[in-house]
Design brief:
mainly alpha, 11 helices, 68% helix
Length: 240
């Protein structure tokens, strides 16, 4: 089914017409078929989603594009919650698959980005995951936010060679903060501790602080220092 027509029908709240067209559609997107079932108030189990691993990214980008429109429509609140859960499950599967591919590449002594002919991570995925998080914040879906933030951090670490260090650090901070929000304070403190370890001044770390009278050269960028300081503050707030 034509995505432009789908979005137009959603914007105009013509859900019955949308269902009719989806029912007749032979769309290659699994997410379209799941939307049809959701609009019919069918119960969707996680194992029913049936997304293909090599299509996770495409399915997510298509699903999120439609989700943006649904959030401004008159869709039933319960149906939107079900759709949110479907997208979060898809995000979880996508993150796990990208991490698996990255680990497989690393075991071969290369980065995942070196295997573009085998599997490629769309550079827009991180931005779109962040957009999804912002939309979830508007709905106060704190558990969903924690799950999506965890996946974004996971993906950033999987393609770390393509990012600046502070970008990974900021995703890890968001990961920790989202876990704080759902009461997972022990896990959050571990995340902050890991960030502090990764973003501590390298020369000071190597010296183990044995000679405090010596001034060490801090080669970190301002953004990296800010990541460290934010993690330190949040860690201390949780552990003091």
């Amino acid at each position: 089914m034509n995505p432009t027509l789908m979005k137009q029908l959603i914007k105009e709240n013509r859900f019955e017409e949308l269902k009719q067209k989806l029912n007749k559609s032979n769309s290659e997107f699994k997410i379209h078929h799941l939307i049809y079932r959701i609009l019919n108030d069918e119960k969707i189990e996680e194992e029913d989603s049936g997304f293909e691993a090599n299509k996770y990214q495409e399915e997510f980008l298509e699903g999120l594009d439609l989700y943006k429109v649904f959030t401004n429509s008159a869709i039933n609140n319960e149906q939107l919650k079900v759709y949110t859960a479907v997208l979060v499950h898809l995000v979880f599967k996508m993150g796990g698959f990208i991490r698996l591919m990255a680990n497989t590449a690393m075991n071969k002594g290369v980065y995942l980005s070196d295997l573009g002919d085998v599997y490629q991570v769309n550079p827009e995925i991180r931005n779109e995951l962040q957009l999804f998080i912002e939309l979830l914040k508007n709905k106060n879906e704190i558990a969903a936010i924690a799950n999506v933030a965890a996946v974004k951090a996971q993906i950033s670490n999987s393609i770390g060679n393509l990012l600046k260090r502070h970008e990974i650090g900021e995703d890890m901070l968001q990961f920790g903060q989202s876990y704080e929000a759902v009461g997972q304070t022990e896990m959050a403190s571990k995340i902050y501790s890991g960030i502090m370890n990764d973003f501590e001044c390298a020369s000071l770390k190597r010296s183990s602080g044995l000679f405090p009278e010596i001034s060490y050269v801090d080669t970190r960028s301002q953004e990296e220092i800010m990541v460290f300081e934010k993690a330190k503050i949040r860690f201390e707030n949780l552990t003091e």
